[in-house]
Amino acid sequence: MHRAADLLAAYLPGSFYYSSARGALLADGVHATVRAGHGTRAGAAAEALEAAAVSGVDEPVVVGAIGFRPDSEASLVVPAVVRRSGAPTATAEHPPAPPWDAGAWSIAHRPEPAGYVDGVRRALELIKTGELDKVVLARSLELVADAPVPVPSLLARLVLLDPAAHAFAVDVSAPGDPAPRTLVGASPELLVSRRGPAVVANPLAGSLPRVADEEENRRRVAALLASAKDRAEHAHVAGQVAEVLGRFCVDLEASPEPVVVGTPTMWHLSTRVTGRLADPADPAVSALALAEALHPTPAVCGVPAERATSAIAELEPVDRGYYAGLVGWTDLAGDGEWVVTIRSAEVCDRTVRLFAGAGVVAGSDPAAELAETSAKFRTLLRALGLEGVA
Asked: Where in the sequence numbering do the catalytic residues fall?
């Protein structure tokens, strides 16, 4: 077993890195590329894992990311070499300073803040007419530096600033990209984890920004727990996750009341859902298969899902790509861990594209939803040394 710090230090663009409380994984090289064809990505992954085992790959895994839309791009491979370690831990060491000049960036808002507020108002009209119960609207920042952005330094800062997050870096390069493209982030939201028959999901929905003043933070935590709007939004998500996992699991349990969990930048309502697989030997219940069944949850899409997906396409001016998709790993036994691709960015040479979204429900305030997206941008902006630009 390697040290978590050594795996982080060994990461280079093109590698796959993933860490959580369960441990860290660094994968290099490509033994096989997973292509779904007309089947599910989980089915294609299972076939690729079986073929890799037959060809002599020791303990093969599939790693990578899948985009938000059902027809979106995916980057899934069986790597040639995999190294593992325990989970990253907090240290007294300060994260390395960004090796770039924070003043040298150009910043484009897509849409402009006023355009996002207008989009929220249009979404509220759809909710008022009964077309939607909820839709998650995102906006994007496109940052361009004077020099290529060093992804290893950005990843290291994300991990060291919040070792408890699900941190990741995935090569998602596609034909036509001017340079290698990397999806990097630190997600707070576990979509699903499987270990043997044990399944865990931890949906988050209902949020408030975290601030420096601890007394104000205590007030915000209490307000979040007391908010009828946020609790209703959260109930949509937790209920859907429990319903989907209930198709595969017995002994399904969900917290009767949400709790508030914190990241360095946000407070979220959280519900932990656990279950035991009815048939762990069934290849259709791998971690990736469960993730595909759950995705997209109302936490990143809306209710009803099909109309929310079309509303997102209508109201968001920039395609989400991998944002609000899923990233993680699955092994030959079906075990693995997949998280929701939020608090993330795509880095390509000098360009960094960030996304952040907020759930719009009846009673939402457009200005407050804009402020929520600004707060969610802070995870990546802080790692880039650019807090305050959103």
From this structure: 134, 189
